[in-house]
Amino acid sequence: EVQLLESGGGLVQPGGSLRLSCAVSGFTFSTHAMNWVRQAPGKGPEWVSGIGYSGGNTYYSDSVKGRFTISRDNSKNTLYLQMNSLRVEDTAVYYCAKPLVGATKIFESWGQGTLVTVSS
Amino acid sequence: DIQMTQSPSTLSASVGDRVTITCRASQSISNWLAWYQQKPGKAPKLLIYKASSLESGVPSRFSGSGSGTEFTLTISSLQPYDFATYYCQQYHTYSLTFGQGTKVEIK
After folding, report:
1. pLDDT tens-digit profile of A28-50?
2. Is A50 in Cβ contact with B94 (below 8 Å)?
3. Which of A73, A87, B22, B91 could form a disulfide with A105 if both were Cys (CB 3.0 to 4.6 A apart)?
C-alpha cells in the first residue's frame, strides 16, 4: 500500500523558513517523480513544485520560484521542500503527491498533508 | 499560466440525479485534463485523467469528456457518498493549474 507521510509544518513568522519532509513507502520511490501541492483554507489546490525521479530536474510555480527548493533523498525514501522568505499567502496545507505511473503531472496518491501557518 | 474556470461553483442535487460539471481552459490543452474529488479534511482523490480515462477503482457512474478548451465531468446517478467538491486540473504545461472547484450539495 502506498503511504505518504508529511511532517515539518507549523507556525512561522513572515520572512521565516520551514523544511517539510514526506516519507514514503509502498512503492519504489527512486523511480517516480514527485510533487508538492498546497491548499489554502477554503481554496482549491495549487501545484507548488515537482522533481524528477533522480532529482536532476526540478520545477516550480511562479509564486514560489526563488524562495522554495524541492529535493529528495532516494536512499531515505524521502521528499523535501525547503521554504524560505515565507509570506502570509503561503499559509496552506501542504501535500506531497505521487503521480500516476507514466504520467508525472497527474496526482494518483496524496499524503494527509501538513499545515503551514505564516503569521506574526 | 493557463487559467481553469469551473461552473457552477455550487450545485444542489438529489440522490439519483444526473450531474454535469464544466471546466474551461484559457487556452487549448488538448486532452491533458484530470478531475479530482475532495471531501472535507481529506486530500483530493483522482477520478479521471486524459479527459476521459477512468482511474482504477472509480465507479463507472463517473465519466469525463471534452478536448481543447471545454471539458465536462458527469455523474450519471448521484450517490450519497458523491457529495463533495470536484476540481479539474490541466497538465498541458508544467505550471500545473486547478479549477476553483464545484461543490455538489444535497438538495
Report:
1. 999 999 999 999 999 999 999 99
2. yes
3. B91
Q: Is A2 helix (H, G, I), strand (E, B) or coil?
A: coil
A115 in helix, strand or coil?
Answer: strand
Q: Which residue of B has its CA nearest to A93?
A: B43
Residue with cell 450519471: B76
Cβ-Cβ contacts under 8 Å, A59 against chain B: 94
**Rg of the Cα atoms in chain B:** 13
> Under a CB-based contact definition with an 8 Å cutoff, are residues B57 and B37 in contact?
no
Res. A13 pLDDT band, cuts 50 70 90:
very high
Q: At which residue does the C-alpha cell 519504489 appear?
A: A28
Residues of B in contact with A62 (CB under 8 A): 1, 95
CB atoms near residue B40 (< 10 Å): 6
Hey, what's the cell of A97? 503527491
Q: Which residue among B46, B95, B101 places its CB closest to the CB of A62? A: B95
**Taking a C-beta distance cutoff of 8 angstroms, is the pair A36, A70 a contact?**
yes
Q: Decide: B51 and B64 in contact? Cβ < 8 Å.
A: yes
Minimal Cα distance from A39: which residue of B?
B43
Helix or strand or coil: residue A79?
A: strand
Residues A34 and A22 sit within 8 Å (Cβ to Cβ): yes
Quick one: closest CA in A to B95, which residue?
Answer: A61
